[in-house]
Design goal:
Elements: H1 2-48, E1 50-51, H2 54-63, E2 72-76, H3 86-95, E3 106-109, E4 112-116, H4 123-138, H5 141-155, H6 161-172
Helix pairs in contact: 1-5, 2-4, 4-6
Length: 177
């Protein structure tokens, strides 16, 4: 009976700790794992991706990207996510980044834009993704990932400030090539 009480008390203390310090757990445990994975994903994308053409580079420069020649687009069947990491999978599902019914059409990892093969990366959609490249250029991949995850948890995808900024590019550059 004492063992049961001890285990129960331990679980209650752990739950209370997680409730009050979940942001610290996420920031110190989960986000560094995701950020490391994102850096590796960017590195691969820079090696295998396709450079922007002249029109796309001009758009990137107009948006304010300092190094448009570094940007690469990688067309994939499915935008990558570290599903093999159970904690990151659950975390991504919790904030609405991945999961049942969620289709990620494109995502930026530094200078690499991963886009689904069946997603037409036209001018407004490319502008949206290029704003994410700009956001990373202004800060860092780690800072943007951290802000984006917490913003998505607080505001949801559509109202997350980084998405709101990128969505403005969809409107500003709505005319296709």
């Amino acid at each position: 009976m004492k063992l049961f009480k001890l285990v129960s008390l331990t679980l209650v203390v752990m739950i209370i700790f997680l409730v009050f310090f979940y942001e610290k757990v996420i920031a110190s445990v989960l986000l560094p794992q995701y950020i490391n994975w994102a850096h590796e994903t960017d590195k691969k994308g820079l090696e295998i991706g396709t450079p922007l053409n002249e029109k796309e580079m001009a758009l990137a420069a107009k948006i304010g990207i300092k190094y448009p020649a570094k940007v690469r687009v990688v067309y994939v069947d499915e935008v990558p996510y570290p599903y093999e990491n159970f904690a990151l999978k659950v975390f991504g599902e919790t904030v609405g980044l991945v999961g049942e019914g969620i289709i990620n059409n494109a995502q930026v990892f530094g200078y690499s834009i991963y886009a689904r093969k069946d997603f037409k990366l036209n001018r407004p959609k490319l502008a949206h993704e290029l704003v994410h490249v700009l956001q990373i250029e202004r800060a860092s991949l780690g800072e943007v990932v951290t802000q984006h995850f917490f913003d998505m948890a607080q505001y949801g995808y559509d109202d997350a400030p980084l998405e709101v900024e990128a969505a403005k590019a969809n409107k500003r550059y709505r005319a296709d090539w």
